[in-house]
Amino acid sequence: MNKQITKEELSKIYGKISPFELKDKLISLAKENNKSILDAGRGNPNWTASTPRQAFFTFGQFAVKETQRTWQKEDLAGMIQKNGIYQRLTEFISENYSLPGIELLNEIINYGINTLGFNEDDWVFELTDGIIGDNYPFPDRILIHIEKIVHDYLMKELCTNKEFNTPFDVFSVEGGTAAMCYIFDSLVANSLLNPGDKIALMTPIFTPYLEIPHLPHYNFDVVNIHANEVDNEGNPTWQYPKEELEKLKDKNIKVVFVVNPNNPASIALSKECKDNLKTIVEKHNPNLMIITDDVYCTFVDNFSSLIADIPYNTLAVYSLSKYFGVTGWRLGAIMLNQDNIFNKLIKELPKETKERLHERYKHLSLKPENLSFMDRMVADSRQVALNHTAGLSTPQQVQMAFFCAFALMDKEDKYKKLTKDICKNRKKLLFDGLEIELKNQPHDAAYYTEINLLDLAKCKYGENFSRYIEKNFKPLDMIYNLANNYSIILLNGDGFASSQWSLRVSLANLRDNSYFIIGKSLKNMIDDLSYDWKNKLELSM
């Protein structure tokens, strides 16, 4: 029989390990008392986009038939042949119109041809050969037709279809986490960042952004830009006041990382905040590199990324994982304008650094000094020497294209509305359980929400009760209590560089009514503490 985890044991690791690692310990604790737990610590959504998957798997059946058409011997088959493949797919669709997802498949093919102007056989061949996955990705950055689909999707979701003077390149990657690794590694490999350099993090922020800079081979000097703005009633807005953003006037800060909407509060940057940042870059720190991670953007009304407002300085990361329910597929993208600060800074590197980089990339080009930062990232993702094997697997790219095309053709944003409604409804149920009015908050993704326990205590029983909790308890006491007595798992906000008294609630991964239960449990925990507090007050009188 396993020994139950004690609060004392947890206190030894609290604040020293990632909140995601702590969560696993809390789950073990909760399971000791109740096999039925509510784990709102993980951000994995409990919905999946079914129709694009149906189209993908039905299309896969056509692709296998195409290999067998070329050559077949028992379990062996040949490779896809391009000539006439569009006509054969048209016949397959016509003869199998009752198959799941085939209507969407037909629409995707026609969208590429009629809307984007693709050659019929080239387009169908790329998808068919891609889904079979028998060739290395070529081009390695992203397949030609698929790049156009993914590019247009990102322009719609990140840039509200704004037009730019120069185009954007897209690099398909194994989810947002791979993008983070590739970006950090390439910045260092190209001496755009060097160990000990000063970087900025716009906090709160996804935990790995806090952890990666302190790894021994990076060891960056980190400046936190705090989202500590409050409204007229003293409630947090999760925006960055001007005095915080002005830290970025320091030209020693080479790069700033931002998750937008942020994590854990999942509130997007306001226009005022973005305008202030843009002014600081233009007037005070024109060489500032900006990395924006916009994974939750589709859950915010009228979202516009920093890459739309400051395209020259900004590199954007996007993952399909949350919106389409595809964390296991590992589908993500890096987007960068062809005219960018990264290329400029590479050209301005010292002579000795350029010579070192010439040796690093000389096998890729006769003039490696002309390689763009994007092309260097692709090569660096495979340690340069294995550049010929770089790129996201082609079946993953085809599934990504199907998701993006599905969203592009959804002119009324029906799917988007469904996912938004799920999150907003769950947040409402959480606050109903808390018995607190849910106020409309601009720029809210409602994918996560953050509950500050001191604010909750103050809201329920006043300032003196809030001070009592702060004086007599620690945040771990609350997290432990929720896991041990209520079998509820929430993440500590300070693990995201937010308040130590805050808890992150994922609104994406549990059944709707679970959020009412979580809210009710939080309220009951606070009520119990207030009961003890009132008794102590009466005894002291």
TrEMBL record:
It holds the Pfam family Aminotran_1_2. GO terms for molecular function: pyridoxal phosphate binding; transaminase activity. Its cofactor is pyridoxal 5'-phosphate. The keyword Membrane does not apply. It comes from the Bacteria. SUPFAM superfamilies: PLP-dependent transferases. Belongs to the class-I pyridoxal-phosphate-dependent aminotransferase family. This is Aminotransferase.
